[in-house]
Amino acid sequence: MNKKLPIRCPSCESFLKVKQLQCDKCETEVSGLYSLPIISQLSIDDQKFILDFAKASGSLKIMAQNMNLSYPTVRNKLDEIINSINTLETNED
Amino acid sequence: MKSLVFILGVYFIFSLNSCSQDFKKLDNTELDKIKLQIAQNFAVNYLTKLREGSFYEFHDEAIDALKSQLTEQNQKLIYHQLSDKFGDFKSLEYAETWIQGNNNSILIFRFKSNFEKSKKKLEVRVVLNESGKIAGFWIKPWSDMLK
Amino acid sequence: MKINYLYAPFTRIAGLKSLLIGLIGLFITAYLAFLTGTHLNGLLNLDFAKDADFVFYLLENLINWVSISVFLFLSGLLLSKSRIRIIDIFGTSVLSRLPLIIAPLIRSFPFLQSFVFQSWKMYLIIVFYLVSVIWTIILLFNGFRISCNLKNERLIISFIISILFSEIVTRMVIYLLIFKT
Q: Which residue segment(s) compose the domain that B117 sits in?
């Protein structure tokens, strides 16, 4: 089963932070309060888009072909993600 | 409610149709070729004379009301306005004939004509009354609709 | 992604592909318009007259398409923050014109070739024409929205202004075209 990383608090909708990390091999635990990287705060779809975009060497044309969508539709999706990233960055500051 | 709308719709369509049922388009087989020739010769002669700087002299081929309207001065004035906008008359070709009136006595002959400056054809319309006299004459932009 | 091909095919088709399909459609529409004497003098103007050569009917369609595209492109350049492509605007605009084939197609029926003004035949053609124009406007709107990535008031107002300006320009150019220079 592919577990989904929760990003927002189910109670108040605020962004969640990382409190504890664990080494899978030696079971060392690190405790603290870390913010999630911005890319992890994006939706799963947006994260997948960014990964696919990187794999397509940043070509929207190739992305459009792979997704079977038109070029402007893919470009608009990228613009939406850029907006989300900018908003997240502003919130972090 | 729906059936009322339908009945009103049908009534509307029939009432529109009644406006137009005075007119009927003639097939080529029903056409009076002699009357067509009269109408066509008149239109060509009229426009050719005016193109050459002259004017059309009416005899007994037209009704008096038309003759009194289309005096030499009026003919030249109308042609001048026409040629200013569309250029000189070049040619015309027969397009269609309609009949009007309850006993189908009025014939409307429609010709398409070429003028030098216009890329669109103009309508030349000649109307013959029940006694075969020219009762109307128009030049206007061509329309497939009879207006 | 759910795609409505009737109203918003541009999620899948835009750019060169829509330009080519649309241009083929425009030529067929213009040829049918020539055969049936259906002048498409802009989006909101219809005339019934077999009174010109094929080139004239073709130019009417081309002029209207180009003027709509130019005004939509200028609106996009002014208002959009995205990097818009001219080929998407011209491509989606020409593909949006496909429904305009309906009026000339309907007039292919011999009984709708010539008729009396204000007769039921005239109104029948006008009803079909209005349906085709509304359909085209919806397609144009969706094409513009996707090509320029505009939203809300900016999208609606700039679209209406572009269409109105293009109508004025189309009519002026066609009027000049009627008279040989």
A: 21-141
Cα nearest neighbour of C150 on chain A = A76
pLDDT digits (tens, 9 = 90+) for B19-28: 445 888 888 8
Range of the domain at A66: 39-92
- Could you please report the per-residue DSSP string of B12-56? HHHHHHHHHTTEEEPPGGG--HHHHHHHHHHHHHHHHHHHTT--P
Contact C116 B119 (CB under 8 A): no
Q: Do A70 and C13 touch (CB under 8 A)?
A: yes
Q: How many domains, chain A?
A: 1
pLDDT mean over B92-117: 90
Q: How many domains does chain B have?
A: 1
Instruction: Give strand ranges (E) for C25-171.
Output: 38-40, 46-48, 115-116
Q: What ipTM does this complex have? A: 0.87
In a domain, A20, yes or no: no
pLDDT at B16: 47
- A67 or C3, greater pLDDT: A67
- The enclosing domain of B123 has a CATH number of 3.10.450.590
